[in-house]
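User: Teach me something about this protein's shape.
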Amino acid sequence: NEPNVYIKTVSSIHEGKHHRVYKLTTNVEGKQLILRLPYLIDSNENITKRMQSEVATQDFLANKLKIDVPKIYAYGLDNNNPLGIPFMIQEFIEGDLLMKKWDPLLDDETDGKPKQKLMDVIDCVSEIHSKLASYEFNSIGSLYFKEDITDPSKIIETIDDRWCVGPIIERNFYKNKKVIASAEHLGPWKKDDLSAVVKNLAEVELASVNERLALIEAGSSSEIDKKSVLLEQKQTFENMIKISPFLFTADTSTEVSKKIPNFVDLIKPRLYLPDLDPMNIIMNPLTNKPYLIDFENTCIKPFILQ
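Assistant: First, the predicted structure itself:
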């Protein structure tokens, strides 16, 4: 809506584990932006899938759950853009991290209760977590815009004809893996198929370990000193695959499930943000509202697997 906006300055503000983050100032007073560039250390397919899910997740949080998040103005999923790499441009949120309020060494407790300053932090994080958990899904995976999933077999749940639950982007399925997980190991899964989630993850881990062991045997690896550890991991993942069908049940009528407190709620799929903490919440001084800023690796799975 502002065709005459142009970038005046670009400054680096953060070198994270997965992204470089830059602050962009423009010719419009008060109009500042954030540019995020992922490190190109994963496959193009993984980077694209993760960004698709991250954008859809932010949209879902803002429009469905009414959680304050930065607006996304533009993004590129691959190298086919003027920057030549995947990118995301979003709203710059003025304010301080909620973590600045955290002081666990306060010693002036009253009646055994922590000081209000501590509760301001705890309550803020808890309120966001409560909103995240308020929506119950019928499948396990990660959020996408419906049009981003071109394979109909990879959609088993849609929400408001806008979002859908598709393949999972949780980092466990691809971090440090010598073998990229195949599509059949990434879901989505039906909500009562908890055992399949565990089995598929164990299969991904096992394939990666076997590849690393094969490189050692071929004399093409620097991990020769890790061979005994890898062999132990191999046995562990093989055992996980064997026992996975017996680990969980979605049947709430069994005697075992009746004895587990809150079992029904434990197995309902809900949004899981692995980095929900005060380091990823900005308190806007103008509105006094908390803004959530980190959505990487967000997925949908039951509490019992979170």
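Now, about its shape. Residues 150 and 166 are 10 Å apart (CA to CA). The chain has six helices and 15 strands. If you'd like, I can walk through any region in more detail.
User: That's plenty for now, thanks!
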